[in-house]
Write a structure and sequence with these properties.
mainly alpha; two-stranded antiparallel sheet; about 300 residues; two-stranded antiparallel ribbon
């Protein structure tokens, strides 16, 4: 066997696994059980009546560890396994979840919030880079060198340098802008920010991508769950990247061009279609989503500025 043939066989083998990793279980070795919860007699691993595991034992050290790990995504619906599939076959895995293969995978919204908590813990020691204060210092130096009269306003205990000619409304708008910026930068708010961003992206994907790879027309709600898995994937990659580079400078702590490349792979596996048409739709969806988020952001700043 030459190298070319070997590589082709491996490629087709990996592609076959990516498209269908499930195998039919051997039921000949299954034992009969009587459910200790509801008394139902059955053959298999789980009770068909109440869903309880057939392997019910007295509590021991393993039980304690298992219960602790289940809080963080270990168990019958394993988060590590879900992330493995999101890293290796993201679009195919999401289609499997939508098609009904839900038991093997961790729920997407819950996974996003847990990963946000893990991100906060994993990157606790990484120092923040306060770009906002840095920009203020540059602005102050420029204004000082130009002999422009400046004033300061206090927002959340920090002084913001502004031109004295700014009116009261402008001061309120600047203050509101800083409050929102501060909210977006706080790690505890990360899952809510991601919910907003990817909900917006789900809306435009619903408009631009009518059907998935299997030709099934997806609802807006199904697009939402697709985006929650993609957000989890990007956040998990951000955790790894942050720990390697010791940096958490943006929303995902992952380079923007890499983020776009990952989303392109996800969408092509998820929706299929012609390559260049898919690329165009992806960038259009990302652009429209970014514009909508900016509109919402500026509208919020405007409302806060007029009300404060």
């Amino acid at each position: 066997m030459n190298i070319k043939t070997y590589i082709e066989e491996k490629y087709h083998s990996i592609k076959s696994w990516m498209q269908n990793p499930y195998k039919t279980p051997d039921t000949s070795t299954w034992k009969k059980h009587t459910c200790k919860n509801c008394g139902t007699e059955y053959t298999g691993n789980f009770c068909p009546q109440c869903g309880q595991n057939g392997k019910v034992e007295r509590f021991n050290f393993h039980s304690v560890i298992s219960n602790i790990m289940e809080v963080w995504g270990w168990g019958s619906r394993s988060m590590p396994r879900t992330l493995l599939h999101l890293f290796t076959r993201p679009g195919y895995m999401i289609n499997d979840y939508l098609a009904g293969h839900r038991q093997p995978y961790f729920p997407p919204v819950k996974q996003l919030f847990i990963l946000a908590a893990i991100f906060s813990i994993a990157t606790f020691a990484i120092p923040e880079q306060d770009q906002y204060d840095k920009n203020i210092t540059i602005k102050f130096n420029l204004e000082k060198s130009a002999n422009i009269d400046v004033d300061t306003i206090n927002v959340d205990g920090k002084k913001i340098i502004i031109d004295k000619k700014q009116g009261e409304l402008s001061r309120k708008m600047i203050s509101s802008s800083y409050i929102i910026s501060n909210y977006l930068d706080q790690e505890k708010n990360r899952p809510f920010v991601l919910l907003i961003i990817h909900s917006s992206l789900a809306l435009f994907c619903f408009i631009l991508f009518k059907r998935n790879r299997q030709g099934i027309k997806l609802t807006l709600y199904e697009h939402f769950f697709c985006q929650m898995y993609i957000a989890s994937q990007l956040l998990a990659l951000g955790i790894i990247y942050s720990l390697i580079t010791w940096d958490k400078d943006n929303l995902y702590s992952f380079p923007m061009d890499w983020t776009v490349a990952v989303i392109v792979i996800d969408f092509i596996q998820l929706f299929g279609g012609k390559f260049f048409v898919s690329i165009f739709k992806i960038f259009l969806a990302l652009t429209l989503s970014a514009l909508l988020c900016l509109i919402i952001l500026f509208a919020t700043i405007g409302i806060m500025g007029t009300m404060s």
